[in-house]
From TrEMBL:
<keyword id="KW-0735">Signal-anchor</keyword>
<dbReference type="GO" id="GO:0006493">
    <property type="term" value="P:protein O-linked glycosylation"/>
</dbReference>
<keyword id="KW-1133">Transmembrane helix</keyword>
<dbReference type="GO" id="GO:0000139">
    <property type="term" value="C:Golgi membrane"/>
</dbReference>
<dbReference type="Pfam" id="PF00777">
    <property type="entry name" value="Glyco_transf_29"/>
</dbReference>
<keyword id="KW-0732">Signal</keyword>
<dbReference type="GO" id="GO:0001665">
    <property type="term" value="F:alpha-N-acetylgalactosaminide alpha-2,6-sialyltransferase activity"/>
</dbReference>
<keyword id="KW-0472">Membrane</keyword>
<dbReference type="InterPro" id="IPR012163">
    <property type="entry name" value="Sialyl_trans"/>
</dbReference>
<comment type="similarity">
    <text>Belongs to the glycosyltransferase 29 family.</text>
</comment>
<dbReference type="InterPro" id="IPR001675">
    <property type="entry name" value="Glyco_trans_29"/>
</dbReference>
<keyword id="KW-0325">Glycoprotein</keyword>
<keyword id="KW-0808">Transferase</keyword>
<keyword id="KW-0328">Glycosyltransferase</keyword>
<comment type="pathway">
    <text>Protein modification; protein glycosylation.</text>
</comment>
<keyword id="KW-0333">Golgi apparatus</keyword>
<keyword id="KW-1015">Disulfide bond</keyword>
Length: 417
């Protein structure tokens, strides 16, 4: 019988899949059997309060959880954390342009914390945010899930968008914020985008094949679990087959639901999502279909999204209070007063761009909606021109006017053609 190359390939794949499966169940068994006493009793007691929820929700990997929690908790904050950035201002900065503008100087408040992390949590904050629906607050969310997630975000890297090593030698932080608008098709802005210090991307950010138009670098990927998963499904055929990954890449979660906190926590701990809509990651299994899905442990872990080195330092979480302030100050749509007003939510792209405007010194926006949007496809990566889709829960015309006004005020640069 002739054995073809492809038969060999499948045989090899089968053998390696079976072996890794055995290894996995073996290592799981080992870990389950590890006595917690191996970690000193003190550290265990110290963490008992923090861990209780996690220990209850999973009988696996206790040691790993504790080890990871210890390693993130023992982090010594950098002394310079509390001093202002040691650098000269830009000639034309966002803050400077805001100060000079009669309308926008009353809208921007640069004192509101952009990111939420362990040290900002308190009973008081819980009571305050428990009054508002997500993503503006925590109403209806689980206290335990939120506390156990925030406990893991406990280093200064979780408190600042730009970490110390990132902003070294930079006298002025220039950011490119890249939306997915059809205006970028054929734009040849790739090099210009890549020349910025930091590059933000969002949702279905296809890069392969569009490098000349959208660049190659990504510093921050901004998403909610809902928009990330929808993008992986809707734009898969158009080339969005995985979330951008990389050693220096950071993820910015928009906490619009319990599932965002659950996914974030699981990603840091290196575990499958223990409960809720993403338990077992049905969407991914659907994508895989067939017998491969049986080995789903390989795919159901959040590392499949965020890469193998998904430690706490890779993740940032937008503060619900910051999202609320953005809505009140910049994104207060008239839709709120309609029958379906409760469904209204700013777009992920809008939250991304406004986040950059509150953290970078200079901001250029690419692929955001312009007044001639009808001349372009919905996204730059469609194969045939497709009209822009206006979602009922978003107010894209209002956002487009905001971008134009910010551009005209000299606060940011909006790419138009
Ligand atoms: C900033 O201002 C200084 C002094 O006015 C000037 O020499 C320099 O070229 C300016 N830099 C940029 C990027 O505009
Ligand atoms: C800006 O935000 C800070 C922190 O939340 C708050 O104390 C201050 O009153 C705000 N300033 C204005 C002008 O609203
Ligand atoms: C832009 O769209 C309008 C309306 O569809 C059309 O009349 C116009 O020719 C288009 N312009 C360009 C440059 O494609
Ligand atoms: C992208 O641009 C090319 C060249 O300008 C054009 O032929 C094509 O139709 C555009 N694609 C979409 C989806 O608009």
């Amino acid at each position: 019988m002739q054995v073809t190359n492809s038969t060999w390939f499948w045989l090899l794949l089968l053998v390696s899949a079976v072996t890794s499966g055995l290894l996995y169940s073996y290592s799981t068994k080992m870990l389950t059997n590890i006595n917690l006493g191996e970690i000193s009793d003190n550290s265990c007691n110290e963490f008992e309060v923090k861990c209780s929820y996690l220990l209850r929700s999973t009988c696996l990997n206790k040691k790993i959880i504790l080890k990871r929690m210890i390693s993130v908790t023992n982090y010594t904050p950098n002394l310079e954390e509390h001093s202002p950035w040691n650098r000269k201002p830009c000639n034309l900065s966002v803050a400077h342009a805001v100060q000079k503008h009669d309308h926008f100087k009353n809208k921007f408040n640069f004192s509101i914390p952009v990111l939420l992390w362990d040290r900002l949590f308190s009973r008081e904050l819980w009571n305050q945010l428990d009054q508002r629906d997500p993503p503006y607050g925590w109403q209806g969310l689980s206290y335990e899930v939120i506390v156990s997630t925030l406990n893991l975000l406990n280093t200064p890297t979780n408190a600042h968008l730009f970490e110390h090593t990132m902003k070294q030698h930079k006298s002025c932080i220039r950011c490119a914020v890249v939306g997915n608008g059809g205006i970028l098709n054929g734009s040849r802005q790739g090099q210009e985008i890549d020349s910025h210090d930091f590059i933000f991307r969002v949702n279905g950010a296809v890069i392969k094949g569009y490098e000349k138009d959208v660049g190659t670098k990504t510093s921050f990927y901004v998403f909610s679990v809902n928009t990330m998963k929808n993008s992986l499904i809707s734009y898969r055929k158009l080339g969005f087959t995985s979330v951008p990954q990389g050693k220096d890449l950071r993820y910015i979660f928009i906490p619009s639901n319990n599932r965002d906190y659950l996914m974030l926590r699981s990603a840091i701990l290196g575990m499958p999502v223990p409960e809720g809509r993403d338990k077992g990651d049905q969407n991914d299994q659907e994508l895989l279909k067939g017998w491969l899905a049986r080995f789903s442990f390989v795919w159901t872990r959040p590392q499949a999204y965020f890469g193998p080195e998904a430690a706490a330092s890779k993740f940032k979480l937008l503060h619900p209070d910051f999202i609320n302030y953005l809505k009140e100050s910049f994104l207060k749509s008239k839709l709120i007063h309609t029958k379906r007003g409760h469904l209204y939510i700013p777009t992920t792209g809008a939250l991304m761009l406004l986040t950059a405007l509150h953290t970078c010194d200079q901001v250029s926006a690419y692929g955001f909606m312009t007044s001639n949007y009808f001349n372009f496809s919905d996204h730059y990566y469609e194969h045939k021109k497709k009209p822009v889709v206006f979602y009922m829960n978003h107010d894209m015309p209002m956002e487009a006017i905001l971008w134009r006004n910010l551009h005209n005020a000299g606060i940011m640069h909006l790419y138009q053609r």
